[in-house]
Specification:
The chain is α/β, with parallel strands linked by helices. The protein has 6 helices and 6 strands. 32% of the residues lie in helices and 17% in strands.
Length: 191
C-alpha cells in the first residue's frame, strides 16, 4: 500500500458551466464551446502537480435526450482539445441518473470522486472539486476535498450545503487562489 506522499493531488472538475458552456443536455459534439481561460487555468494547476478528473451528472442520458455515443464523442473531443493545450484529462466519470435519484454516483453524493481517487491513487485531502453548482461543492466536501464554486448560477448563501472554500467568477480566477490556500488550515471562504 502506498503512503500519502506518493499519492496524487487532483482537481475534480464539473463539465458543463465549468469547462464548457452549459448547453442544457448537450447532445451534439459540434456544439462544445470552451469557457474563457480554462486551458490557461489547468496549465497553471498542472504545473503545480495536479492531475485532472471530470465528474459530471448527465441526467440527459436517463431522460433519453443525450445519446450515449454522443456523450462519449463529446468527452473524446474535450480530452483531445485539452491535450492539444498540454493538459491531460485522465478520466471522465459521469452519472447517467435522474435528478430525483439519490444514486451514490450522482452529485451531491461523492461516488464519482471516490472512484476517481481509487482509480488514480488520489489524496483527497490535498484535492479540489470545482463546479458551478452547490451540489459540486457538496460532493467535494463529502469526498474530503476542498471545493470551488464558480459564480453566476448559484450562491452559497441560498444553499443548505456548506459554503465553498473559494467562490469566484471563473476557473482562471480560481486557480491561483487554489494554489495559495493552505490545505492544512481550517476551511475559509474566499471571494
Amino acid at each position: 500500500m502506498k503512503n500519502n506522499s506518493s499519492k496524487s493531488k487532483a482537481v475534480f472538475l464539473d463539465r458543463d458551466g465549468t469547462l464548457i458552456e452549459d448547453k442544457i443536455y448537450l447532445n451534439d459534439p459540434d456544439q462544445v464551446v470552451y469557457l474563457p481561460g480554462v486551458f490557461e487555468a489547468l496549465r497553471l494547476l498542472r504545473d503545480q502537480g495536479f492531475i485532472f478528473l471530470i465528474a459530471t451528472n448527465q441526467s440527459g442520458v436517463a431522460r433519453g435526450i443525450v445519446d450515449i455515443k454522443n456523450l462519449y464523442e463529446i468527452h473524446r473531443r474535450i480530452r483531445a482539445r485539452f491535450a492539444q493545450e498540454g493538459v491531460d484529462l485522465l478520466s471522465f466519470y459521469y452519472a447517467p441518473y435522474m435528478t430525483h435519484t439519490d444514486h451514490p454516483q450522482r452529485k451531491p453524493n461523492p461516488g464519482m470522486l471516490l472512484r476517481g481517487a481509487l482509480d488514480h491513487n488520489v489524496d483527497l485531502s490535498q484535492s479540489w472539486m470545482v463546479g458551478d453548482r452547490m451540489i459540486d461543492v457538496e460532493a467535494g466536501h463529502r469526498a474530503g476535498c476542498r471545493s470551488v464554486l464558480l459564480a453566476g448560477r448559484e450562491s452559497p448563501e441560498d444553499s443548505s450545503y456548506s459554503p465553498p472554500e473559494i467562490w469566484t467568477s471563473s476557473l482562471l480566477e480560481a486557480a491561483p487562489k487554489m494554489l495559495h490556500l493552505d490545505l492544512s488550515s481550517p476551511r475559509e471562504l474566499s471571494e
